[in-house]
Design a protein that fits this description.
Order of helices and strands of chain A: HHEEEHEEHEEEEH
Mean pLDDT of chain A: 91
CATH topology of chain A: SSo0622-like fold
Number of helices of chain A: 5
Radius of gyration of chain A: 19 Å
Largest sheet of chain A: 5 strands, antiparallel
Helix content of chain A: 40-55%
Structural class of chain A: alpha+beta
Oligomer: homodimer
Chain lengths: 195, 195
C-alpha cells in the first residue's frame, strides 16, 4: 500500500515536471540529472534549482519575503550585467548572491534515502541532509559553495571596478563548481543505476 | 541493547563536553542550550558552534583546507577589528564570513529526531536536517542567515569605509539574529521538556 502511494505520487509529480519542462520553467542544466534520478525505481525529484547568480534588494538581512529581484542568471556573468541590473536599486540592502544547485528527492524508504545521502556527500554535496521523514522521505542534495555579499545600500552601489571584478570571478566560480559537481553526481548515479 | 549503546555513548560524550567546557573550548553563548538538550532523555549534543564572524584568506573558493585565519570573533565587531586583522593578508582571496549557530544532536530514535527537527525549523533554524541515520541518528540544527563576502585579493583590501561599515552591520546582524533564535529555541525546548 505504501509502495502504491509512492508510485502514484511519483507518476503525478513527474507529469507536473513534464509540463514545467515544456513551459521552459525548469533550468536546462539540471534536466539530465533529474531525468536520471526519475528513471530509478526508488526515487523521484520534487523540486530543484540548477544554481544561480542573483542581484536583489532587501530591507534587512533574512527578509526574503520583501526582496526585490533586480537580476537573475543561470550562467556566468560579467561586471556589466551587475552594473546594469543595479541601476534599478532604490532602498534597503543590495545583495549579490551565487547559489549552488539544490535538488529535493523523494525516496521510497530509509535505505534508499541513506544510499542517496551518502552518494551526494561523496560527490561534494556536503550540505545534503534528510529534510523530512514522516509522510515523505525527502533528501535535500546541496553543496557548500556560495557567495552572499551585500554590495550597496539605499540605491548606492559600493564596489569599484576591481572589487566588482573579484565578486564576479567568485560568482562565476560557484557556477563552474556547480556544473562540475552535478556532472560527478550524474556519473555516480549512472554507476548506481547500472549496478 | 540499542538503548544501552545510546546511554553509554551519551555518558562518554558528555564527559568530553565537560572537559572542553572546563578548558574554555566551548562557546559560552551556546552552553545553556547544550545543557538543556543534554538534560533530556532522548538527546545529546555531539558538536556545536555559537556562530562567529571570521576573516580568512583562501587560495580559491571552497579550499578551506588551505585557509589562513586572520580574525575570529564570537561577538559583535567594528570596522577597526577587521582592518586590524586584514593587515596580515598576503596572498589569495580575503573573505569576511558571518556564520550562524550550528548544533549536532544525537537522537535516541527516529521519532525523537522528527520532533527535534520540526521544533528547530519552527524556531527559525530552517536549514536543519537529518545528517545521518544508520549507526547514529543525528539532527543538524542550522539557520539561514550568513555573510560570505570576498573583501580583498593578494594582500589588498577592497572596501572603503562606508562599504566596510555595511559589511560590519550585516555581520553584526547575523550575530544578533543568532542570539535571538537560540533564545527562542531554548524556550521551545523548555516547553517540550515540561510537557
Amino acid at each position: 500500500m505504501k509502495n502504491r502511494d509512492f508510485l502514484e505520487n511519483k507518476k503525478r509529480i513527474l507529469q507536473k515536471l513534464e509540463n514545467a519542462k515544456n513551459n521552459g520553467e525548469v533550468d536546462s542544466g539540471i534536466i539530465p540529472v533529474l531525468d536520471l534520478i526519475n528513471s530509478m525505481d526508488d526515487y523521484y525529484t520534487s523540486s530543484s534549482c540548477f544554481g544561480r547568480i542573483v542581484l536583489m534588494e532587501i530591507p534587512v538581512i533574512g527578509d526574503k519575503k520583501n526582496a526585490r529581484w533586480l537580476g537573475k542568471w543561470h550562467h556566468k556573468i560579467n561586471s556589466g550585467d551587475v552594473l546594469s541590473a543595479a541601476k534599478d536599486a532604490k532602498r534597503g540592502q543590495l545583495w549579490l548572491l551565487a547559489q549552488c544547485p539544490i535538488i529535493h528527492v523523494v525516496c521510497k524508504d530509509v535505505e534508499s534515502a541513506d544510499k542517496l545521502l551518502k552518494l551526494s556527500v561523496s560527490c561534494g554535496f556536503k550540505h545534503s541532509g534528510l529534510k523530512s521523514f514522516d509522510r515523505n522521505i525527502i533528501v535535500e542534495v546541496l553543496s557548500t559553495e556560495r557567495l552572499d555579499a551585500p554590495v550597496g545600500r539605499d540605491g548606492r552601489f559600493f564596489c569599484d571596478d576591481e572589487y566588482l571584478g573579484l565578486l564576479v570571478d567568485v560568482a562565476n566560480d560557484v557556477v563552474s563548481k556547480s556544473s562540475e559537481k552535478l556532472s560527478r553526481f550524474k556519473d555516480s548515479l549512472d554507476k548506481l543505476l547500472n549496478n
